[in-house]
Design brief:
The longest helix is centred in the first third of the chain and has 12 residues. By secondary structure, this protein is of the alpha/beta class. The two termini are about 15 Å apart. The strands form 4 sheets. A 3-stranded parallel sheet has the order 1-2-7, covered by helices on one side. The protein has a 3-stranded antiparallel sheet with strand order 8-9-10, with no helix packed on it. Strands 3-6 form a two-stranded antiparallel sheet. The chain is elongated and about 70 Å long. Helix content is about 30%, strand content about 30%.
């Protein structure tokens, strides 16, 4: 197996990094995520994301998280209506949103929570802002702003 006896380091605990981590863990890989945030609650995660059928939704399906995604998604987020100061509708995309391809939206915070809760304990190493990477023995040494380092083995 390609992943056997490897230590995988993923820099960044955003949606992509956390999803990749979950998929690798399902294959039995030893994975650590190095995230710059001090902890999972340190900041607001930003605006909504729309997930496409062939990429984000398929990854969540493969990760076994699609039901949790749909329990937290925002079906109304794709709809848009703009009115003037007299409440006259100037732009109405409600009907158009119902006929678009499947790209459901979810807020970044709930998506991050879903992904974090799905990972093995101690997977995410918080307060680890990446600074540099140098070759080290049979892999790489990652150096972080807080003075710590970690290795990833090839």
């Amino acid at each position: 197996m390609l992943l056997k006896n490897k230590t995988i380091a993923i820099v960044g605990g955003g949606p992509g990094g956390l999803t990749l981590t979950k998929l690798l863990q399902l294959k039995g890989a030893n994975v650590k995520v190095y995230e710059r945030d001090f902890n999972s609650d340190v900041r607001v995660q930003g605006a909504t994301l729309d997930l496409h059928e062939e990429s984000g939704l398929e990854a969540l399906r493969q990760a076994g998280l699609i039901d949790e995604f749909y329990a937290n998604h925002r079906p109304e987020a794709r709809k848009l209506r703009i009115m003037d100061k007299h409440a006259a509708i100037r732009l109405d995309l409600h009907e158009a949103a119902d006929h678009e391809e499947n790209r459901p939206e979810i807020d970044r915070g709930p998506l991050r929570t879903i992904l974090l809760n799905s990972l093995s304990p101690e997977t995410v190493v918080w307060d680890s802002q990446f600074v540099s990477m140098v070759p080290y023995k049979d892999g790489w040494q990652l150096n972080f702003k807080n003075g710590t380092s970690a290795t990833a083995v090839l």
